[in-house]
Write a structure and sequence with these properties.
By secondary structure, this protein is α+β, with helices and mostly antiparallel strands. The protein is built from four helices and seven strands, in the order E-H-H-H-E-E-E-E-E-E-H.
């Protein structure tokens, strides 16, 4: 049994904005040039990321040749409090891990966002390697790119 990855950040925006950035606007901040199926399989970044943040909706990468890669499916969407996904980016669906992101508004325009990514046992003998890779990946994707997108909303509110 592998422990879930847990990442917690504070962002300078309200919970609803952070929730929508993570779900509806994921394609605006996700680093497709370094973290996509396309870049790893062809060396060419994906051109877009589409999300349908409703229970059963998908996260879909659109490759440069318009090939569609399903990364996972939303299993629960409780706007603006939490979102849950079965996540299998680049892996067969039976190797989906479980991702939950929760949004806690701590004061006006300040939200704590907690990411919990578990279910690593589905990878069998490569579970430890996959977990370690995602642990590092979430530092870049969540703790840097998502946090930076939330930070930019502060500047947009001032304009």
């Amino acid at each position: 049994m592998y422990k879930p990855i847990v990442k917690v950040i504070e962002v300078p925006t309200d919970a609803l904005t952070a929730y929508r950035l993570f779900t509806v606007e994921m394609g605006s901040w996700w680093p497709l040039d370094t973290r996509s199926i396309s870049i790893h399989s062809t060396g060419i970044p994906a051109k877009a990321l589409e999300t349908d943040p409703l229970a059963g909706g998908a996260i879909i990468e659109i490759a440069s040749d318009d090939t569609r890669h399903v990364w996972g499916n939303f299993t629960d969407c409780d706007e603006p409090n939490s979102v849950a996904l079965d996540f299998h980016m680049g892996q067969p669906m039976d190797q989906a891990t479980h991702l939950v992101v929760s949004f806690f508004e701590t004061r006006p325009q300040q939200t704590m966002v907690k990411l919990v990514h578990g279910g690593w046992d589905c990878y069998g003998p490569i579970a430890s390697m996959m977990r370690d890779g995602y642990d590092k990946g979430w530092n870049e994707i969540f703790s840097f790119h998502f946090a930076r997108a939330c930070e930019k909303t502060r500047f947009l509110r001032r304009a």
